[in-house]
Amino acid sequence: MYLIFFGVGVGFVVLTLILGNFLESDVTALSFFKPKLIAVFLTVTGGVGLLLTPRFYGMAGDGIVLAISVSGGFLIASLINIFVIKPLHRAQNTSTFNKQDAVGQLAEVVALIPCGGGYGKIRYSISGSVVTGAAKSEDESEIRIGENAEITRVEGSTYFVKKQADFSSQEL
Description:
Blueprint: H1 2-19, H2 35-56, H3 62-95, E1 106-111, E2 120-126, E3 129-137, E4 148-155, E5 158-163
Helix pairs in contact: 1-2, 2-3
């Protein structure tokens, strides 16, 4: 039985690594029922059972081995959830943003945006991160280094900006 748990757990780990996010779902209310945690539980339960069964073989210890194995699996899966998965999930959610969220943001020109549709570079702050990117003037006018601009739209990796008259009171 423990060999099956261990084998299914290891197989589930490999499957989770291959399919990754396809198996993950935020629709479950209980955070413990995630493929990675189920794989850890099965693997640890099977592994502990395999290690303890020879020591208690022939004794009336099958119930004890099962209880220790299941408890160990649950404990390790819980610790991984609390100290690894949840912190990583929180960090991922706070540091990501959509470029379209930048529309309306004020930015500083850090490389000249030439007139006639040439590319320059802007810098702005969003979601606690400072972002730089290629920029073009919306009206094809020149915007010099140090001047301020408003992001009007984003197409691919290019920010379209228009010159702002007063940006000195804003912070990036």
